[in-house]
Amino acid sequence: MATGDQTDIFRRIKALLPQWFSDNTPVLDALLRGFAYATAFVYVLIAYAARQTRIKTATDGWLDMIAADFFGASLLRKPGQSDASFRGRILADLFREQATRNGLVKVLTALTGRAPRILEPQRPLDTGSYGGPLLGYSLAGGYGSMLLPYQAFVTAFRPAGTGIPYVASYGTPNGGYGQASQAELASIRITHNSGHCERCGHLRDHRQRQTRRNDCLDAHQQLAT
Q1: Which of UniProt's keywords are assigned here (predicted)?
Q2: Interior/surface letters 161-190, b for 16+ CB within 10 angstroms, e for the rest
Q3: DSSP letter at 146?
Q4: What residue segments make up the domains of the chain, in order of their start?
């Protein structure tokens, strides 16, 4: 028995009745249980409605209504997203730092996984100053300017990818000179030659270029004859 369920409310109602009823009252109990069922439904509905008044306890479509109230169509539930996950997104966007440099860094970092590069021409910490530690030869940076007030140049980076299969990246030992490996080089010519031949339909594969090329030549000769 839980607080507010049918059994709990039935016992509460029966405890308020006068003592002239006998111990065995099946007809009276059936009537009281009907009242208790309706009251228990109302109790559950009130408890459910109370939970929807707070973001941390809201569920179902009420979370979508809360998101629409605060963010309009800019924050929608993803297909199959749970209430807990969607609630976390709402709270994160609701208390996210806005209209500041630090807020911009946090948003772009959350989106791409990489911190952006920001240059404010009127900010000495970005441009350096004469006699300061941030300005000198062989130091990468940008010049400051008093002609660009309240402006910033933001360089946002793409998310880090997983690379191209079977192709080594720079800085990896298996793709270095003098290293025995099967690493291949990525080339625009190779990627353009991949796919199916437009004339004969043979599949092109940059890992088997010569074999596929011979197949295409044989097919082209047969088509010509």
Answers
A1: Membrane, Transmembrane, Transmembrane helix
A2: eeeeeeebeeeeeeeeeeeeeeeeeeeeeb
A3: T
A4: 6-51, 61-94, 101-155, 173-224
